[in-house]
Amino acid sequence: MPEESLRVTQFPRVEPTLMPGERVLTECGPIYATSRRLLRRESQGGRVFYEELSYQQLTGVEVVRKASHPIMALGVLAMIGAIFMTISGLIFVTAFLAVAGGLAMVLYGSKGHNSYYQLRVDQPPPGPAPEPPTEMEVALERFKTALGISNEKVDKRWQLDYVKGRSFIATVRTIRGDLPEF
Asked: I want to staple 65 with a disulfide (CB 3.0 to 4.6 A). Which of 7, 112, 158, 163 is the partner?
């Protein structure tokens, strides 16, 4: 079986957008890594749109962690329960252990887990150039930076599931070479 027909049967959804000699190496959801670029396929209202991203535009990969809110909530409930046990006159040691366990659960939950990969792209956002920030906005951004709060807008188009995207990221790193992790 020739390679050209193999490519069509394996990835028929992006075949029309491939250049001569280009082939799909791997996919993760709607994003395809080809021998020349990344392609993203999106369907809206019965129409299919393709976006491309050259490997030179990639500036890095970020592993994004998300907190586990249910575990944190259980930890807070354990600490509240310990307060009520102390107020009601139950054994102090039990309340102390409940507070320690609750605090441990809050800390463990806030550490979170690896959720997804975010491909960092070096390109200006689409649309008109933003207006310069006011003095108040600059002061607010400095305050957020001092507190460690990020206000960066994330480009969700180039997100990959953490578990499913591992081999995809490995392939992209093989092609791109020096792709730093943030």
From this structure: 112
